Structures are given as structure tokens and as C-alpha cells.
Amino acid sequence: MENTFCLFYFIFRAKFSEITFQSIQRALQTLGHPDERQNSAVEVRSELDLRIGAAFTRFQTLRLKKIFPETLADTILSYGSCQFPTLGFVIERFKAIENFVSEQFWKLKVTHIRDDIETEFTCNGSGCSTKEACEALFDVCQQNPEAAITKVTTKPKSKWRPQPLDTVELEKLGSRKLRMNVKEVMKVAEKLYTNGFISYPRTRDKHISLPSLNLRPWWRCRHQTQTGADLRPLCLSGDPTLVRARNTDKAIPIHPPSFTNSLAGAEKAVYELVVRHFLACLSDDARGSETVVDMAMAGEG
To answer: For the chain, how many structural domains are there in total?
Structure first.
């Protein structure tokens, strides 16, 4: 007699992107079965990254060794999908600085003070190309010092909130705003992630899903931050259409899962950068108005 045994394997997956008690507890309470399609997508993406990286690493190493044989004799130039866009920004900025040619120019400036409010008027255009032309215009204005307001134009202005933070954008902001090199920014970010202060810093995702984020601790601690943002409306309702983005690798954008004010130095700088960007993403677009006042003096505006 042949005995047949049927074994059933129940496999569950806990999904979390930051190392915090709340996140891990929530993941364990909402266990789900692995998605074969997502698993296949990850395998395809890993295979593409490996093949593209290997091909471009070999190509650029052999190519550049022929151009710089002494400098790159024993060097391998690896290719990374996140590092190369950042390198492009660095080179673009370097070329802009190298090709910049400074030019002298002069311009007239009129200052009006009333009720301790100072208003500055400047000439239309970028200025005078020669000092003599600017001095001649100044003499004309001195001979006719009376000015008249000719037009007042007010129009609405808005500034879009930023997209959620991914790895490349974190590197760019860290370099531009914190004056830190890319390697240092990522080293600090990974340390913050290990300590549970920010989510996983290596991601290409730009989509925020509010139901997956716990904003209540942020609202409770908002008075301890310098931002003063009121997250109560988001905590109570939530807006699932905050950000629409194409890039998604099923890992949520870089964000702060917990609040802390105990950091210092580079860690504090990078953490505050992530916090401010996160709060800006959750805020409404900045809306205001711009008023332009045209003034004429001695026939010049």
C-alpha cells in the first residue's frame, strides 16, 4: 500500500519600510501572502540592473582606460543607476561654473520709505552696459526728481509642493542645501535608517500613500519642531491623491517614521532635511499674490 501525504505550506509576508515598533507591529498584524507578480517584477528589475550595470561598467572601463591609460591603469569604473544621474548634475554644475564669464553692469535703484516700510524700485531691463550711460540717466533723474505711479498689477502666484523624496533627490538636496558630498549624505542617511529615524534611503519610489503612514505622532510633536505645521486635517481624513508619480518600486519614499530632537551635527542636518521635505509634500501648494508697481521718473520707468 502506498501512502500519499499532502503538505500545505502557509507562507505570509510582513511588509515594513522603517525599523520602528509601530511599523513592525502594524506589519505583523496585517500579514499577507506573497504576490508572485511583484516577486517577478523585482526579479526582472534586479536582472536589468545587473545586466545594464555589467555592460556599462565593462564598456566605460575599457573605453576610458584607452583615453587615460596611466590614470586608470588598475581601476574599474562601475556604473550605478542612482549614482550616474547625480554625477551628471555635478558635471553640469561644474561646466556652468567653468564657462561663466562675469560682466560688469550698472543700474539705478530708487528706495521709498513710508511708515517704516521700505520699497525698492529698479529700472526696467537688466541695467546699463556702461557706467557713463548709467551716470547720464542718474543726472536726468536728479534734474526731475518727482516720480509718479503709472500702474499697479496684482496677480496670483503659486508654488507647487515638492514630489516625495527618492535617493537621487536626497543626494541632490544634500549636496545643494547642506554642502555635503553624496557619499557622506548617503552614509548619514543609512545610519539614520538603522536607528529608526528615517525610512529606507535607497528607493526610486515617489508615491505617498497616507493610509500606510502614521501621522498622529507627528501632529502631537509638531509644537516641538520649528516647522509649526498642523497635520490634524491629514490625520483625521487623509488625501490618497496627494502625489501622482510614475516612478515606483513598491518601496515608499524616504520619510521620517518617528520624531526626535536628540540628533546633532550631520545627522541632525540630514534628518531635518528629510522632515521638512516630508512636511512640504503633505502640505498644500503655496498660494499667494504678486504685486508689481510701475513708477515713472524723468520719462524713465
So the answer is: 2
